[in-house]
Amino acid sequence: MNETTTPTATPTAPTEAHERTQQLLPWLVNGTLEDAERQAVEEHLAACAECRGELAATREAFAAYSAHLPPEVVMAYAEDGDAAAYPAPGEAGQPRMLERQLVERHLEQCAGCRDDVEMTRESLGALAGESGAADGASSAVATVPLQRGGGDSADGDEPWRAAPAGPVVTADSAFSPAGSRWLPFAMAACLLFAVVAGGGWFMDNERLDQRQAEIEALQDELLDARAAVETARAAAGTGGGEAAAELARYQRDLEELTAEMEGLAGQLSTEEGRVAALRDQLASADTPAIQADPSFANFMLDTTRGAGDGTEAAEFGGDGPLVVTITDDGSGLVGEGEQVTYRILDAAGDAVAEDSVTLKRDGAGLPYLGIVINPSRLPSGDLTLQILDGEDELNRYPLRLR
Amino acid sequence: MRDFLAGDLEAVRVVDGWLERAASSYRRRLRNQWDDVLQDVRLEVTRLLRDGKFRGDSSLKTYLWRVTCHTCLDRLRSRQRWTMVELDPRTVDDEVAAIFERPQEKVWSAERDLMIRVLAQMGDDCRHLWSMLIDGHSYREMSEETGVSEGALRVRVLRCRRKALEVRDDLLAS
Fold this sequence. Notes:
The structure holds 2 protein chains of 2 kinds. Chain A is of the alpha+beta class. Chain A has helices at residues 2-29, 35-47, 49-65, 71-80, 100-109, 111-128, 133-142, 183-197, 206-238, 241-284; strands spanning 87-89, 95-97, 300-302, 322-327, 339-345, 351-358, 360-361, 367-373, 381-389, 392-401. In chain A, the strands form 3 sheets. Chain A has a 4-stranded mixed β-sheet with strand order 3-4-8-7, with no helix packed on it. A 4-stranded antiparallel β-sheet of chain A has the order 6-5-9-10, with no helix packed on it. The longest helix of chain A is centred in the middle third of the chain and has 44 residues, at 241-284. Chain A starts with a helix and ends with a strand. Chain B is 72% helix and 0% strand. Chain B has 10 helices and no strands. Chain B has helices spanning 2-5, 9-24, 27-30, 34-50, 60-80, 94-101, 109-120, 124-134, 139-146, 150-173. The interface between A and B is large, with 117 and 114 residues.
């Protein structure tokens, strides 16, 4: 009896398992299979080389269907619409071109890339639109005799160099100034900002500009989110559970944005006090500059050697912006990708600057924190750089600015 | 540039202002990462200028704009990359694990261009189905959304996968 049943069952089961596995692979990759399905697929994969090949093919399909225009193409297209100038490596070192027609077809179909192009055009407009003192100063900086590097740099080192050379920011730029379509909302945001800041407009400080821009951007997002909620609410009235779920998602987004905006308004109020104090200090002090003392300025901090070790100070080249690199000794300052807060304290121990920074890895794979500190934002005298994980202090380093 | 590297306050202020303006339009999408990206830009600019990488092929302002935009777009791209699930190491051998560990960001630019060309030849149906996949929808959710039975949907997705790879192979052959 066994001889009659076994031959019919054996060839059928593997074929079904193959088909079932191969059909489920896309959802294995995107992580949405239920536990039982996932376990069955993984067990089959472990024993089936053919299906492992199918898994690799599925992954390649993910790469194809999630393709986006590279940053170089987005920038070239935003710059002058001529993305045909974008070079890509071809055979025998000959450049290959991503044709304009292809770029435009992709843009027709990809909302994300269209948004990227739009933002990049706005970025151009933002620089082209600046005026007054900034323009005068920019000329001064741009016309300084240029230094040349000691050797050729690889494309990978400076990928943006692949874009066509030539002036970008022109007075007759075809692109609109940044956010012109949001002008009415931006004005409303400015009003909100003015109320919250309570006269902070007169404090010439970059942080205030920054907060203002953040509030404007959030105002845009709030408007979008509110519109989405209205649309979803209308759909929920006539639609089923899916529409109601969508409405709930949009409402959560709206609540998050509102909370974020309220947080920013609070920060703005705090900034105002700090700006006032800084302004008083700057008005009464000599022009501050980073002290040339290598034991305090432009040094590389190293948690393995303790604070204030300035042996590598020369690397940062004189009195430029204070570039602080804090290397981890591998014992785990924080986990990779985690954010820590750094705070600058004045001589009295009060915080005069604060920001967050993400732990990264350098080319050798060693973790580090990289911080650039603009001296114009700091009071002169003895300072302390404090590194925090939440409210827990990880380390502190002495600084001095004169 | 020399003034900036020398720490001249006005030059630092001007350059920092350019960087912030250039990056400002990306703030909406980068949201809470924006400050971090801007800090990356400052570090990169300081490094490039200090190392003499700026050669004067364009104005300094243009150069800094490119560095800023590239950094911001690159960060947005890294956010868009879909995340693959990890397989259980107890049931999967090294060969499969290697497939999953292959870093997406190390795809060659030539391959990246090829993917753009492949995508341009795919029909709207396939693009729609796979965009839902990339967005992390289960096949049940996709079935409900498209009104196609689960079995038929899985077959369609598989067919679209095969079609994409056929197009890729044709392009490579040509």
